[in-house]
Amino acid sequence: MLSVVVLISGGGSNLRALLEAAADAEYPARVVAVGTDRPEAEGLTHAEDFGVPTFEVALSSFETRDAWGDALLEQIRQWNPDLVVLSGFMRLLPAHVVDALAPHLINTHPAYLPEFPGAHGVRDALAAGATQTGASLIVVDNGVDSGPIIARERIAIVPGDTETSLHERIKPVERRLLIQAVLDIANGNLDLKELSKA
């Protein structure tokens, strides 16, 4: 059984989908803990609904990003996860945290990488006048959304799309890619170490 820690900053819709998938006895992964950098993160309610423990490590509680990273890594390691999923986690992890967890550290992104990396992928796609964007799942490295691509899928941008409407169409694709990738990792059909060497 693959053990997973999920880190969130917001609503946690991807987390919810993964928790629902993992509630099926046939699904070979379990979310063992959910962490956040924001105590007000709405997605924590999903963890509570499924009886999953949560932890909070707020950046504002530490003098440096590295100190915050140390505390976050300590919390994650308490759960000894096989995989860490960044799901709408809006903080860049310090390099030493990425190095400690890689390559078993993955992230969802609302764009067809390497197009439109960064915190505003949906907004940037609209601002660029793109006719399509997408959803991606990557192995996290020390760049900005620059790690090896696990999966990605195209999504059309339609006339009248707003940042909100487009993001709402991207989210179900992100969720599907994440659930399938976790399944593939758990079943041994996806080797993150090999992918990271490529």
From TrEMBL:
The record marks D145 as: Raises pKa of active site His. Pathway: Purine metabolism; IMP biosynthesis via de novo pathway; N(2)-formyl-N(1)-(5-phospho-D-ribosyl)glycinamide from N(1)-(5-phospho-D-ribosyl)glycinamide (10-formyl THF route): step 1/1. (6R)-10-formyltetrahydrofolate binds at R65, M90, R91, L92, L93, N107. Its EC number is 2.1.2.2. InterPro entries: Formyl_transf_N, Formyl_transf_N_sf, GART. It catalyses: N(1)-(5-phospho-beta-D-ribosyl)glycinamide + (6R)-10-formyltetrahydrofolate = N(2)-formyl-N(1)-(5-phospho-beta-D-ribosyl)glycinamide + (6S)-5,6,7,8-tetrahydrofolate + H(+). Residues 4-182 form the Formyl transferase N-terminal domain. Keywords: Purine biosynthesis, Transferase. N(1)-(5-phospho-beta-D-ribosyl)glycinamide binds at G12, S13, N14. One of its GO terms (biological process) is 'de novo' IMP biosynthetic process. One of its GO terms (cellular component) is cytosol. It comes from the Bacteria. The active site is at H109 (proton donor). GO terms for molecular function: phosphoribosylglycinamide formyltransferase activity. It is an enzyme of class 2 (transferase). Catalyzes the transfer of a formyl group from 10-formyltetrahydrofolate to 5-phospho-ribosyl-glycinamide (GAR), producing 5-phospho-ribosyl-N-formylglycinamide (FGAR) and tetrahydrofolate. Belongs to the GART family. This is Phosphoribosylglycinamide formyltransferase. It comes from Gryllotalpicola protaetiae. The gene is purN.
